[in-house]
């Protein structure tokens, strides 16, 4: 949402401090040392449990072979595994805080953490080699090569009367210090910069550097300035690569300005840079405090998960896929089972370009529906949120509410269908994106601080169903190729279980909330004991087809990870022979015609994520079939209530019965030899058949249940309804264990 909020913290709240050490370990944050006020430094250690916003002052045991760390600022504090590594900093030799006598440090400590919360104590490791010289305001990162597996800590730069640009390496396993030889142009000496690891690269940005062009100043009284220069060190080859030079002009303000004392954090393959200050050392009154937030996409995004089915109708699909962190959107494509005419269908309708600002104040990045040329590396593509252009195809929709009704259809034998749980915002963008082989640096717009719910947040509901949103609910005709999925968990409590409303993947829990679940309905599912014969296995995507059948057509570009698809874009005849490849330019959808989906037709889908570096690789292919009219819908509002020796399974009739319901059937996935040979082939046993909308599952039946581990451990049920034409789609329920 790009929105700041101020959490209501409690507990042993630490005093405000500057130049402290800070590490994040899961959902807890550890803060050590810092300057509390001028001349008065701290050596206190605080822990924040971010899941509860609870502060706690912790008191580590003193080392057996020395004294605990003295009060300091400007030190490095790095996490690897269950240990934090403290190096250097600046102490005050004077007992009088008004009389500051600086002493630069190069001591080295190890802090062992307890799992989840708390610490064990400090220790002073016995190291080999030559220790780095004393310093403060340096950086330290930890990197471990995948093929070698020996973690290394790298210290770069800092201040010791003058700025430094030396690089030091500590082998954490052998506790050996060394100075690695590097290639390339070493960044200027600097302090109060940031260093972050993404992949095998250490990205260094900003800080105080020599003001002279030569960078030869080493005297304490030399002139210094803040810089916006940006480099990275390849940690496998120890080669420095410059991305933004200190003298590079930026008249358009499209790059982060010079700064020091800022903060930077890596999230996935994206680097965020926040705040800092800019100003000459001898002009303190003229310093500029930065309040801007930037991010850098360092590489193309990874492939998303396979496209998953939530709901199908005779002429549309509601689809979703797992989110890829820190992306700007997703390119969704389909392939029709039968040949598609080159330019048949509905004439395209252009949507005027508009600047869309979300209700949470998050700014979209600069996007263009036009095809754009690539930018050669290492030049960086930088965009402004104030120039946002959004093109939204008419056929693009998304789930409009966190409690939206979702329906799907399928026989109990299921093809490759996935359904997941997610609450989504009520807006989607479909836009074109620039692409580049270089990292992309973009500013981020944020809104003022306030407390708000995040997208995708699940709320606990006590003994109540989730009402469907009328704006997205609809009558759904039947098909024989899909299973709508739910995930529930029951636990002993006053609510006695969980409630799932309709076929949405929104799950409501009792007071002990669980995270959203995703499960796979695997292909070639087997059903035992009385299963009807009108189900079928999915078509194999690898089957031989004519080349014309395998063309991929754009559905659109979506900001969120879900969409309702009723049409797709047809390519002009002259471009049909050019297959869509990863990173290809996105066409201007306003110039393309559209084709409606047909009933009873198989469509294959794939999706790719997009960030500032371009379009990433496509996901694996999923295959779904639009509905055939006349069959009943899937049962809804499934409830599971646990008793001592059994569970009670209940549901409501389909929202779209399409005739009189003759009977319901409930099935339980059971253990079998086929599962051991092929875990993707679930075997189901019918445990109920009748007119009632509830049944009892005995302990004896549960003892034979198969526990599905495709995501979180769960027992799988399926429930379907039958009318005069036969059984409709099944609602699949994953009962979390």
From TrEMBL:
<dbReference type="GO" id="GO:0035097">
    <property type="term" value="C:histone methyltransferase complex"/>
</dbReference>
<dbReference type="InterPro" id="IPR059124">
    <property type="entry name" value="Kelch_HCF"/>
</dbReference>
<dbReference type="InterPro" id="IPR015915">
    <property type="entry name" value="Kelch-typ_b-propeller"/>
</dbReference>
<feature type="region of interest" description="Disordered">
    <location>
        <begin position="406"/>
        <end position="435"/>
    </location>
</feature>
<keyword id="KW-0597">Phosphoprotein</keyword>
<dbReference type="InterPro" id="IPR013783">
    <property type="entry name" value="Ig-like_fold"/>
</dbReference>
<dbReference type="InterPro" id="IPR043536">
    <property type="entry name" value="HCF1/2"/>
</dbReference>
<protein>
    <submittedName>
        <fullName>HCFC2 factor</fullName>
    </submittedName>
</protein>
<keyword id="KW-0880">Kelch repeat</keyword>
<feature type="region of interest" description="Disordered">
    <location>
        <begin position="512"/>
        <end position="548"/>
    </location>
</feature>
<feature type="compositionally biased region" description="Polar residues">
    <location>
        <begin position="521"/>
        <end position="535"/>
    </location>
</feature>
<feature type="domain" description="Fibronectin type-III">
    <location>
        <begin position="537"/>
        <end position="629"/>
    </location>
</feature>
<dbReference type="InterPro" id="IPR003961">
    <property type="entry name" value="FN3_dom"/>
</dbReference>
<keyword id="KW-0677">Repeat</keyword>
<dbReference type="Pfam" id="PF13854">
    <property type="entry name" value="Kelch_HCF"/>
</dbReference>
<keyword id="KW-0539">Nucleus</keyword>
<dbReference type="InterPro" id="IPR036116">
    <property type="entry name" value="FN3_sf"/>
</dbReference>
<dbReference type="GO" id="GO:0006338">
    <property type="term" value="P:chromatin remodeling"/>
</dbReference>
<dbReference type="GO" id="GO:0003713">
    <property type="term" value="F:transcription coactivator activity"/>
</dbReference>
């Amino acid at each position: 949402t790009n929105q700041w909020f101020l959490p209501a913290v409690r507990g042993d709240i630490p005093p405000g401090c500057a130049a402290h050490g800070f590490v994040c370990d899961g959902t807890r944050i550890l803060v050590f040392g810092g300057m509390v006020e001028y001349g008065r430094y701290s050596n206190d250690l605080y822990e924040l449990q971010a899941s509860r916003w609870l502060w706690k002052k912790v008191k580590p045991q003193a080392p057996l072979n020395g004294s605990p760390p003295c009060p300091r600022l400007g030190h490095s504090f790095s996490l690897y595994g269950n240990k934090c590594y403290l190096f250097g900093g600046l102490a005050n030799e004077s007992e009088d805080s008004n009389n500051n006598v600086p002493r630069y440090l190069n001591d080295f400590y190890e802090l062992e953490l307890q799992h989840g919360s708390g610490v064990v104590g400090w220790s002073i490791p016995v190291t080999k080699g030559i220790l780095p010289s004393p310093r403060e305001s340096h950086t330290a990162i930890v990197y471990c090569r995948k093929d070698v597996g020996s973690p290394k800590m790298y210290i770069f730069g800092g201040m010791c009367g003058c700025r430094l640009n030396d690089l030091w390496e500590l082998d954490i396993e052998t506790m050996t210090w060394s100075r690695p030889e590097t290639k390339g142009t070493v960044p200027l000496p600097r302090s109060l910069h940031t260093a972050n690891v993404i992949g095998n690269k250490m990205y260094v940005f900003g800080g105080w550097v020599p003001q002279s062009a030569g960078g030869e100043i080493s005297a304490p009284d030399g002139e210094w300035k803040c810089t916006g220069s940006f480099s990275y060190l390849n940690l496998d080859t120890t080669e420095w690569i410059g991305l933004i030079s200190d003298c590079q002009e930026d008249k358009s303000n499209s790059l982060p300005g010079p700064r020091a004392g800022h903060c930077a954090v890596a999230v996935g393959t994206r680097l965020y840079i926040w705040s800092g200050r800019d100003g000459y050392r001898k002009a303190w009154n003229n310093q500029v405090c930065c309040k801007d937030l930037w991010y850098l996409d360092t590489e193309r995004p990874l492939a998303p998960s396979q496209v998953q089915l939530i709901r199908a109708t005779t002429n549309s699909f509601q689809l979703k896929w797992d989110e890829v962190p820190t992306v700007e959107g997703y390119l969704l494509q389909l392939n029709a089972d039968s040949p598609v005419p080159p330019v048949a269908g509905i004439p395209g309708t252009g949507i005027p370009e508009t600047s869309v600002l979300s209700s949470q104040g998050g700014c979209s990045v600069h996007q263009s529906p036009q095809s754009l040329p690539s930018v050669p590396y290492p030049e960086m593509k930088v965009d402004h949120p104030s120039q946002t252009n959004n093109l939204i195809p008419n056929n693009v929709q998304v789930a409009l509410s966190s409690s939206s009704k979702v329906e799907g259809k399928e026989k109990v034998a299921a093809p490759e269908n996935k359904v997941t749980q997610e609450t989504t915002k009520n807006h989607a963008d479909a836009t074109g994106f620039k692409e580049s082989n270089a990292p992309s640096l973009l500013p981020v717009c944020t809104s003022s601080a306030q407390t708000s719910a995040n997208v995708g947040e699940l709320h606990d509901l006590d003994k109540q169903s989730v009402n469907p949103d009328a704006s997205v609910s609809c009558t759904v005709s039947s098909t024989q190729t899909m299973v709508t999925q739910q995930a529930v968990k029951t636990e002993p409590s006053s609510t006695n279980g969980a409630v799932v409303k309709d076929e949405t993947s929104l799950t409501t829990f009792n007071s002990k909330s669980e995270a959203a679940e995703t499960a796979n309905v695997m292909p070639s599912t087997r059903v035992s004991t009385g299963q009807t014969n009108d189900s079928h296995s999915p078509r194999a995507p690898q089957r031989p087809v004519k080349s014309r059948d395998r063309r991929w057509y754009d559905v659109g570009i979506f900001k969120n990870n879900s969409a309702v698809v009723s049409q797709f874009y047809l390519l002009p005849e002259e471009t049909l022979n050019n297959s869509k490849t990863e990173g290809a330019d996105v066409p201007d959808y306003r110039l393309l015609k559209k084709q409606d989906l047909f009933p009873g037709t198989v469509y294959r889908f794939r999706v790719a994520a997009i960030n500032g570096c371009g379009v990433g690789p496509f996901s694996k292919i999923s295959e779904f079939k639009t509905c055939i009219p006349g069959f009943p819908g899937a049962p809804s509002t499934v409830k599971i209530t646990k008793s001592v020796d059994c569970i009670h399974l209940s549901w409501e009739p389909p929202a779209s019965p399409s005739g009189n319901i003759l009977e319901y059937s409930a099935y339980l996935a059971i253990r079998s030899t086929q599962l051991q040979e092929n875990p993707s082939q679930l075997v189901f046993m019918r445990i109920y058949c009748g007119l009632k909308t509830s049944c009892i599952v005995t302990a004896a039946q549960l003892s034979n249940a198969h526990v599905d581990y495709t995501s979180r451990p769960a027992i799988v049920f399926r429930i379907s309804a039958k009318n005069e034409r036969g059984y409709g789609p099944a609602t699949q329920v994953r009962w979390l264990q």
